[in-house]
Amino acid sequence: MHTLGSGFAGLCMAIKLKKAGIRFRVLEKQPDLGGAWHCNQYPGARCDITSCLYQYSFYMKPDWSAWMAQAKEIKEYLHVRLTAPYPSNPVMNVAFRMLRTTSTCTKTSRSTSA
């Protein structure tokens, strides 16, 4: 059985494995899905490529608010496009029924020291 996280790539893989009929489980150490987009909520956190490229080809979002979306909007995209429309699907319902460990995000700060 494959084990995935619930970050951007892990959720994509979960969707593809589900469609292929391959067994997997989603384990997430954070209290919510999103991976880096859940943990990195510092002021100004945003995607470093254009928003239209940072989305799933099978769940397009034509109404990004900015050329390079902020972290909050990307996390909302994951919730709205993947979990909300599929409340009874265990893959898409990961935000509500995921397994957790005891770890949590550590607050990061930007540092200029080497």
Topology at a glance:
Blueprint: E1 2-4, H1 8-20, E2 24-26, H2 36-39, H3 71-83, H4 94-97
Parallel strand pairs: 1-2
Describe the protein in words.
There is one protein chain. The chain is mostly helical and 114 residues long. It has one domain. The protein has four helices and two strands. It has helices spanning 8-20, 36-39, 71-83, 94-97, and strands at residues 2-4, 24-26. Strands 1-2 form a two-stranded parallel sheet. Helix 1 (8-20) links the parallel strand 1 (2-4) and strand 2. The longest helix has 13 residues, at 8-20.
Strand order across the largest sheet: 1-2
Kindly report how far apart the N and C termini lie: 40 Å
Mean pLDDT: 74
Strand segment count: 2
Tell me about the biggest sheet? Answer: 2 strands, parallel
Range of strand content: 5-15%
Instruction: Calculate Rg over CA atoms.
Output: 15 Å
Structural class: mainly alpha
Poorly predicted runs: 90-114
* Element string (H = helix, E = strand): EHEHHH
Q: Overall 3D geometry?
A: globular
Q: What count of domains describes the coordinates? A: 1
Helix content: 25-40%
Number of helices: 4
Short summary:
30% of the residues lie in helices and 5% in strands.
Observed structural traits:
114 residues, single chain, 4 helices, mainly alpha, disordered C terminus, two-stranded parallel ribbon
